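Predicting holo structure, nicotinamide-adenine-dinucleotide bound.
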Amino acid sequence: MGLFTGKKGMVFGIANDKSIAWAITQKLHEEGAEMGFTHLPDHDPERPKMERRLRKLVEPIGAKVIMPCDVAKDEDVDAVFAAAKDAFGELDFVVHSIAYAPIDDIKGPVYACSRDGFKLSMEISCYSLINLAGKAKDLLVEGGSILTLTYLGGERVIPGYNIMGVCKAALESSIKYLASELGSECKVRVNGLSAGPVKTLAASAVSDHSQMDELYSAMAPLRRNINREEVGKAGMFLLSDLASGITGENLHVDAGFHVMGAPTPEVSGR
Ligand SMILES: NC(=O)c1ccc[n+]([C@@H]2O[C@H](COP(=O)([O-])OP(=O)(O)OC[C@H]3O[C@@H](n4cnc5c(N)ncnc54)[C@H](O)[C@@H]3O)[C@@H](O)[C@H]2O)c1
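Done. Tokens:
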């Protein structure tokens, strides 16, 4: 019997097999979870690229729901939770693994971010968690759990992360408020996982992966970067009953990089 045998959840944010949400899904599946999934709406019905990519991954693991969802549209989010209710009745978990900022706004400097770019980045990368939590709470069972993905750029300045760092700071604050509200109201936990650099579609907009790998190899206490599977299993842990006493937390899965306050001897030469 797996940790998730008999448990059901919705996963938002698989774009392809490199997505962090897919790494978490694989671990949830190994532990017996039943899941539903969303993809970004396809604009060309003749060539539904997003849907096809997602189906290829999740049909073989028995996906119960596969739906388009633009988190900027309430009607999409409502339709997804209505379908989840039909398919599952109740939910044990929700994975929110979504972020977006327009390329012209994320390239920085932060002070040059446009008003509309700021609103859109915040809406997709932060408000979407608040909105999903509000809409999911009545479906989530007591002891249920919500997980979101964040990055150190929300706590400290990471050159290149720019406006997304501002969004992650707001997201990380939202985790705490939501954990307080949902914990007392319905005994639902809300946590964040702050992942080290993983080579994905979204990450290609903010960093050069090989440079980040080098940085983590030189600076992190473990003297290496993390891998996708480590993020997947820690995500699964936070969603599971093993983490039943953990909420409002931001768990760093970054080989310890976030604890360093000065360059290592390898970097400083001292
Ligand atoms: N890759 C990294 O190094 C890294 C590190 C720390 C945190 N994260 C975070 O992990 C999460 C997942 O990113 P990823 O790296 O797996 O990249 P990804 O590109 O695979 O996933 C991003 C997802 O966001 C979805 N998305 C964007 N706009 C949306 C919208 N309007 N409606 C619905 N979905 C939308 C995309 O469809 C995609 O599935 C993000 O929050 C990201 O900031 C990534």
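The chain has one domain: 8-268.
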